[in-house]
Specification:
The protein has about 500 residues and is of the alpha/beta class. The chain is built from 14 helices and 19 strands. About 45% of the residues are buried.
C-alpha cells in the first residue's frame, strides 16, 4: 500500500520568475500534496509551462532570503532541486522537440527504456527485466504496436504517448504533464483519459491544459493563471471555477462556438497548384502513404483528417517537397518542370508545422522567425532587405504580434510560438498555405485569431490545406477533404456535410 510519504509534497511560497527581464510569474503560493490531481489552466503566455518547470527544478525562481520552492520526500525537506529532480517526471512539448532537433531516432521501446535510468538516449542495452517493464508499460497504455517503430517516424500524437510511457516507467513520485493531450486523435485521447480517470493511489499530479474536455474526472483541484498571477485556486467542483472557465474574457472554451453559422468557402475550380498521382511515399523503408491521387486548385480549401499515424503530416510535407514520391507515382507542381528548382514553388507556398518549431534555435527572435519565412529558411542566412522588413512588420501587426517582435522564441509559450509560425507561413503572400494541426496548444483567443486569418486567406483565393485528427473543426469551411487511415485514402472529394451556414467568413 502506497502512503503519502513515498511521494513528493511540493510547496511554493511567493514564487516570482523573470525571463529576459520580463515578469512571468508573480507571487505564486501553491501546495501540491500526495493524492491531489491538479489542473493548471490559463491563456497562452499566462505562465503555465514556466510554473511546471519551476516545480520540476528545470527553471529557478527569483532568489530571495527564504526558499521559494520546497520539496518533501520521506519526511525530509529539500530547498534545492538537485536531490529530488530524478523523482519528478515532466512531460512537455520541448522534450518531443529535442528528439527532432538532434535526430534521435531510436525505436520507441528504447526511448521508453531511457526513462528507467533517466537518460536522454540509451547508454547501454536494456536487460531482460527492463524490457519486461517496457512491454508492460506499452500494454498499460495500449500502444504495444509502436514498440519497434523509429521514434521520428511516429506521428505527433504517437510520440506524445511514447514520452508519457517514458515518464511513467521511471515510477515518479510527482507527475507534471504540460498540454499532454495536444496532438492526440480521439482514440489516443480516450486512451489517456481512461488512464487518468482510473489513476489511484497517492501519486500527485499537475496537468496544464486549455481545453475543458481534457479535464479527467479524477481531477481534485484547479489552479487558474492570468498574466502570471493566480486568479483561482481550489476544488474543481466549484461554481467560482466555472466562472473562469465559461464566463467573460477568461473563457477557455469559447472558441468551440466560433464556427457556428459560417458558410463554406466555395469557389469555381481554377488552375491546379499541385497534383499527386498514385503517389507512394516511404520513410526509412516503411510505406507511409499508398496510392494517393488528388490535386489542389487555386481557391480550394482542403481538409486532411485521420487518426494518429494516418500519414497526415507526411502528406503535407510531400506537397511541400520534404519527401519524394516513389517510382510509379508522380507529383506535379505548377511552374516546376525540368531545370526549374523546387524553391520556386516554395517561394509561393507557406507552411506551418510542429517540426519547424523544433528546428529553430530558441534564441531566435520573433521578428527573425517571421523574416526567415521570406526565403523559406530556418533562421536568417542573408541580410533582410527593406521590403522583407516591411512585409514582416505588416504580418506581425496583422496577427497582433508586433509587441513580441524582439522577444526570443524560447520566452514564448508553445501556443504563442505556433502563432509565430503561422505568421512566418503567410509573410510571402503565398498562393498555397499548408497548416499542420494549427490549433495544437493554442488557447481560445489565439484559436479565434487563427480561424479568422485562415478564412480571410481563403476568401482572397489562397488555397488552404489543413490537417486535423477530426473533421469537426474544419468541415464547415473546407471545400474538399481527404480521410486517411494507415497511409491509405478512405475518401477524397467534396466535403461530406449536410448543413451549410449563412454567414460569410
Amino acid at each position: 500500500m502506497h502512503t503519502g510519504r513515498r511521494y513528493i509534497n511540493t510547496c511554493l511560497n511567493g514564487v516570482t520568475l523573470y525571463r529576459g527581464g520580463r515578469l512571468v510569474l508573480s507571487k505564486i503560493h501553491w501546495t501540491i500534496r500526495p493524492g491531489e490531481r491538479w489542473i493548471l489552466m490559463g491563456a497562452n503566455g499566462s505562465g503555465k509551462t514556466q510554473l511546471l518547470k519551476v516545480i520540476a527544478g528545470i527553471v529557478r525562481a527569483a532568489p530571495s532570503s527564504s526558499p521559494r520552492v520546497r520539496w518533501r520526500l520521506e519526511d525530509e525537506w529539500h530547498n534545492v532541486p538537485y536531490e529530488i529532480k530524478q523523482h519528478i517526471a515532466y512531460v512537455g512539448p520541448e522534450r518531443q522537440d529535442k528528439y527532432q532537433r538532434y535526430a534521435w531516432n531510436m525505436a520507441a521501446e528504447d526511448v521508453i527504456g531511457t526513462g528507467i535510468h533517466g537518460t536522454d538516449i540509451p547508454l547501454e542495452a536494456l536487460g531482460a527485466t527492463d524490457r519486461r517493464r517496457v512491454r508492460m508499460m506499452l500494454e498499460r497504455l495500449g500502444i504495444t504496436f509502436l514498440a519497434r517503430r523509429p521514434f521520428l517516424e511516429l506521428s505527433h500524437g504517437e510520440r506524445r504517448m511514447v514520452l508519457l510511457a517514458r515518464a511513467l516507467i521511471g515510477r515518479p513520485k510527482l507527475l507534471l504533464l504540460d498540454e499532454v493531450f495536444t496532438g492526440l486523435d480521439p482514440e489516443n485521447h480516450a486512451r489517456l483519459m481512461r488512464w487518468l480517470t482510473r489513476l489511484r493511489g497517492a501519486l500527485p499530479l499537475a496537468m496544464a491544459t486549455h481545453q475543458i474536455d481534457d479535464i479527467p474526472w479524477s481531477a481534485t483541484h484547479a489552479l487558474v493563471l492570468r498574466k502570471g498571477r493566480v486568479v483561482y485556486s481550489g476544488r474543481t467542483r466549484s461554481s467560482l471555477l466555472a466562472r473562469y472557465l465559461y464566463g467573460g474574457g477568461d473563457s477557455l472554451h469559447a472558441a468551440r462556438n466560433t464556427q457556428k453559422s459560417r458558410r463554406r468557402v466555395t469557389r469555381k475550380r481554377e488552375a491546379t497548384l499541385v497534383r499527386m498521382r498514385c503517389a507512394r511515399v516511404y520513410l526509412d523503408e516503411r510505406c507511409a502513404l499508398r496510392n494517393v491521387s488528388f490535386s489542389v486548385g487555386v481557391g480550394e480549401f482542403w481538409l486532411i483528417h485521420g487518426p494518429n499515424g494516418a500519414g497526415k503530416t507526411t502528406l503535407l510535407r510531400t506537397l511541400y517537397g520534404d519527401h519524394g514520391v516513389a517510382a510509379g507515382g508522380s507529383i506535379e507542381r505548377r511552374g516546376i518542370h525540368s531545370g526549374v528548382p523546387l524553391e520556386r514553388f516554395r517561394e509561393r507556398t507557406g507552411i506551418s508545422a510542429a517540426y519547424l518549431q523544433a528546428r529553430y534555435p530558441r534564441t531566435c527572435t520573433v521578428a527573425e522567425v517571421v523574416l526567415s519565412g521570406r526565403h523559406g529558411s530556418i533562421g536568417l542566412h542573408r541580410t533582410p532587405t527593406k521590403t522583407d522588413r516591411e512585409a514582416a512588420l505588416r504580418v506581425l501587426r496583422r496577427v497582433n504580434l508586433e509587441k513580441w517582435a524582439q522577444r526570443p522564441l524560447g520566452e514564448l509559450s508553445y501556443g504563442q510560438a505556433r502563432l509565430v509560425l503561422f505568421a512566418r507561413a503567410i509573410v510571402r503572400s503565398p498562393r498555397l498555405v499548408l497548416l499542420d494541426e494549427p490549433f495544437d496548444s493554442v488557447d481560445a483567443a489565439t484559436r479565434r485569431v487563427l480561424t479568422e486569418q485562415i478564412l480571410q486567406l481563403a476568401a482572397r483565393g489562397v488555397a488552404i490545406v489543413v490537417t486535423a485528427h477530426s473533421s469537426a473543426d474544419w468541415n464547415t469551411y473546407a471545400t474538399h477533404e481527404i480521410e486517411l487511415i494507415a497511409g491509405r485514402v478512405q475518401y477524397c472529394g467534396i466535403t461530406r456535410q449536410t448543413h451549410v451556414g449563412v454567414r460569410k467568413p
